[in-house]
Amino acid sequence: MRTLAAVLGAVSLLLQFTHAQVTLSSLLVENQVAPLGIDVSPRFSWRISSSARSVAQSTYRLTISTVSPGASDIWDSGTLTSAKPYLAPYSGPALVSDTLYFWTVAVTTTAGSASASSNFTTGFLAQSDWGASAWIGKNVTLVPQALMNAFTSASWIWPPAPGQIPPSAPPGDVALRLTYTVPAGKTAASATIVATADDLFTLYANGVLVGSAPNTTDAWMSAQIFKNVDLGAASPLVFAVRATNRPDVSTGGAGPAGLLFALS
Fold first, then answer.
1. Buried/exposed 18-43: b ≥16 CB within 10 Å, e otherwise
2. How would you write the chain as a 3-class SS string?
3. Is it the case that residue 234 has pLDDT exceeding 60?
4. Is residue 14 scored above 80 in pLDDT?
5. How large is the average pLDDT for residues 217-238?
6. In this structure, are residues 24 and 115 in contact, taking their beta carbons and an 8 Å threshold?
7. Where is the secretion signal located (predicted)?
8. pLDDT for the residue numbered 118
9. What is the pLDDT of residues 76-96, one digit of tens each?
């Protein structure tokens, strides 16, 4: 015979289950709340809360509408068996660009059922949606065209070394210097400099550090641009470069080396 305490415990558990409430919150599309501009096939997530213990999801159903929450004029997933309340995939017809969609999820759990709704808006899903649009940005000329022409037509330079077969050179640092005398009656206030070196370089103007190449692989493939370099009205002007040739990755010995430099 069951004891009174066991009966009361069973009644208490039954009452707890009967009065347990299940709610859904944190409705997400691609891990975002009501996102704007979704341009991928969306995935849906939600959070289950309940006053009961050890509540687990049994099934879920998703519906999508352009009319109102709860409607299914676009898609109805049907009831799907799943314990996962996250990243449920969309598998309906292709969505339309720049459109507001309402989505509703209905779940059943071990403690009852619940439903909730949210929305998301699609972005432009096809290149043609952009029409005749063009990229815009600040209208800034980085360097004078004449300077770029001089840079692209320049020849690589490097101090010769005994037994060196250009364009290869031993690994290590070399120093290069350009001295320029400002014409009489003129003052050089600033300069724009474009430079690169295989593999690295540090640039100085009149003994003042201007800048250097980033210490990354193949940094020589992208020129560095230094604008408004202060020359301090000095004459003559002295531009100095400490260039570094790294060892060849295969042999550890000599490898390609060179410096490109142009200024205006």
1. eebebebeebbbeeeeebeebeeebe
2. CCCHHHHHHHHHHHHHHHHCCEEEEEEEECCECCCEEECCCCEEEEEEEECCCCCCEEEEEEEEECCCCCCCCCEECCCEECCCCCCEECCCCCCCCCCEEEEEEEEEECCEEEEEEEEEEECCCCHHHHCCCCCCCCCCCCCCHHHHHHHHCCCCECCCCCCCCCCEECCEEEEEEEEECCCCCCCCCEEEEEEEEECEEEEEECCEEEEECCCCCCHHHCCEEEEEEECCCCCCEEEEEEEEECCCCCCCCCEECEEEEEEC
3. yes
4. no
5. 84
6. yes
7. 1-20
8. 97
9. 999 999 999 999 999 999 999
Rounded Cα gap, residues 247 and 257, in angstroms: 10
Report, as an integer, the average pLDDT of 115-121: 97
pLDDT at residue 10, as a whole number: 45
pLDDT band at 9 (very low <50, low <70, confident <90, very high): very low
Peptide bond before residue 236 is cis, with ω within 30 degrees of 0: yes
The tokens describing 53, both together, are 């213990």
Q: What is the mean pLDDT of residues 135-150?
A: 73
